[in-house]
Structure formats: C-alpha cells, structure tokens
Write a structure and sequence with these properties.
The protein is an alpha+beta fold and 199 residues long. The protein has a single domain, classed as Histidine kinase-like ATPase, C-terminal domain (Heat Shock Protein 90), CATH 3.30.565.10. It contains four helices and seven strands. The strands form two sheets. It has a five-stranded mixed beta sheet with strand order 2-4-5-7-6. A hairpin with a 2-residue loop joins β4 and β5. The longest helix has 32 residues.
C-alpha cells in the first residue's frame, strides 16, 4: 500500500506525457503552417550567418542522433551570409534534419554541407536512408504527405521548411535515387555587405 507507482503505471504516464508532447508539436506545426500560408507569420530581416543557424539546429537534434546511433557530419568551410529570420530558418533546418534522422537507419551518417555559389548560399542535407521514389520528390513537400503509413512526425515539417525558405526568396528541393539515400537542398540569396567580394 505504498505511495509509489508500479512499473505499468509509470509506463502509462510516460506514454501519456509523450502523446501530449506530440499533440503539442502537431498543434504548433499546424499554427505555423497556417500562418505561413496566410502570409501572417512575422519574419525578421537581419544579417545572418547560416552556419550559426545550422549549428543551433544541429545542437537541438543531437540527442536524437545520439539515441539512434547516427553520425552528423558538418562541412561549412566559409561564412554563409544571408538576410532573414534566424529563428525561423533554424526551424526550417531542424525540420529537414529531423526528417533525415527519422529516415536514416541507426549507425549511418547524415551530412550537412554549405557553400556560396554565385549569388546564392547553398546548403545540402544528405542521408543514407532508403531514398525517395521519383513520383514523391515533389509530393513530400505537401502538408500531411507521407511515403509510408509507418512514418512518424506531423507530415508538416517539410512543407513548413520549404515555405520558410521561399519567404526568404529561396528554393528547396530534394534529389534521390531509391535505395541510395536522399539529399535535400536549400538555396537562399547571398547577402553581401558592400566590402565583401564574391569568392
């Protein structure tokens, strides 16, 4: 007749807490997506080094990467100057990283590469997952789209990420060969100050 919880009760509480957190994330994703679609999501327009944004997103996803025994490799040799909203851009990058983590088998790598190419900053996120069927390469950016019913997540992450990138004057797309992993690309206009030279 002690006051402690039995193991089954603890498991039930843990599952209930996890489901409440998932529901909260889904509601946040829905609100963000609706604000993006309605054009009412406020965005800052400040000079940002996308390397910092990516580093913050990677720090946020790192516990999940460790839990799954995955490796996150980073190749960002030069500053990636853009103009935009660092918080929303971090959300976009985090959504792409979370997607890669979800679809990459344990023990494999996710590689993030950034570079300046002409007038654009290009970032790629490559995973060693099962790849994306050709007919789904565009569909995955639609809200609630899932390739399989076993997938977790809200089905909104990539739609939100793409819309955030588009609101920064950029583009986002995926390339994949089935069975060979997938690469997600983000291209955003480079923001150079007057004294900066093009590489």
């Amino acid at each position: 007749a002690g006051g402690g919880l039995r193991a089954e009760q603890r498991d039930l509480l843990t599952n209930a807490r996890r489901n409440v957190e998932r529901l909260g994330l889904l509601i946040n994703d829905l609100l963000t997506h609706n604000q993006l679609e309605a054009g009412i999501l406020p965005l800052d327009h400040e000079p940002v080094d996308l390397r910092t944004v990516i580093a913050d997103a990677m720090a946020a996803i790192q516990p999940l990467v460790i839990e799954r025994g995955q490796t996150l490799d980073l190749d960002l040799p030069v500053p990636l100057p853009i103009e935009g909203d660092a918080v929303r851009l971090e959300q976009a990058v985090l959504n792409v990283l979370a997607n890669a983590t979800r679809h990459t088998p344990p023990g494999t790598r996710i590689v993030v590469v950034g570079r300046v190419e002409g007038d654009d900053v290009l970032v790629s996120v490559r995973d060693d997952g099962p790849g994306i069927p050709p007919n789904a390469l565009e569909a995955i950016f639609r809200r609630f789209y899932r390739i399989t019913t076993e997938e977790g997540g809200s089905g909104l992450g990539l739609a939100i990420a793409r819309r955030i990138v588009e609101l920064h004057g950029g583009r986002m797309w995926a390339e994949s060969e089935p069975g060979q992993g997938a690469t997600f690309w983000i291209s955003v206009p480079c923001h150079r100050t007057g004294g900066e030279r093009r590489p």
